[in-house]
Design a protein that fits this description.
2 copies of one chain form a homodimer. In chain A, helix 1 runs antiparallel to helix 2 and helix 2 crosses helix 3. The longest helix of chain A has 16 residues. By secondary structure, chain A is an alpha+beta fold. Helices cover 34% and strands 39% of the residues of chain A. At the A-B interface, strand 6 of A face strand 6 of B.
Chain lengths: 124, 124
């Protein structure tokens, strides 16, 4: 994949995390991830379209109205890519959560996500 | 793996990059990586002990006397870990190269390294 295609894939990936319409979200999940993709972050490990879609839906219900945005450059080589993402509360200028994902690609889709957290909300 | 064991594994991994005695380096490679581990960074993809060992030897001959050191905290969850490393020229205080690796672990050894570069030397 060239850099433009990789960046588009990352943007579609984040769009999936923002899409709350169930049918459109599932379509994005199937477009962006390979069928048996594995998504892992510190909280969850999800395998395959059904579970990944359910994981995204669960995160959306925990953070209603929040928006994921790309947090910096997209760095790719071979079949892998890394990027930071920011999660914004409605109307906020500062991200509530900052995460960092490395993804392995396979034939233009994501085969695996290795997700980490750079900033998490402080519990009062 | 607990955090201490993961940190020890990362330190042994960097020790492998620093070990120039061929027999000791190969022993470290076999200790640290699973037999069919895949190592990928922007320059190279190496599969298995033999090729990984040869890759490390090639890097050592490109950077004689240089030392790899852990560059920050070791962040681990599930079967994955991320960390930054610094490569120092002999006697240097500032790293010549800064890299960032995500590794997937399997039964206490590294199954896969997804390596990226954060700082590369400027070519004059």
């Amino acid at each position: 994949m060239n850099d433009t295609a990789t960046r588009t894939l990352v943007e579609r990936y984040l769009q999936g995390w923002n899409e709350t319409d169930a049918l459109r979200r599932r379509a994005l999940v199937e477009e962006v991830y390979a069928e048996h993709a594995v998504y892992t972050d510190p909280m969850v490990q999800a395998c395959g379209w059904e579970t990944i879609d359910a994981t995204i839906a669960a995160v959306q219900s925990m953070f209603p109205g929040h928006v994921f945005r790309l947090g910096g450059p997209v760095d790719a080589h071979h079949d892998m890519v890394r990027f930071q993402w920011h999660l914004f509360a409605p109307g906020a200028d500062e991200p509530l959560v900052i995460g960092f994902d490395v993804a392995q690609l396979d034939d233009g889709r994501i085969r695996q996500v290795l997700g980490f957290l750079d900033k998490v909300p402080q519990v009062a």
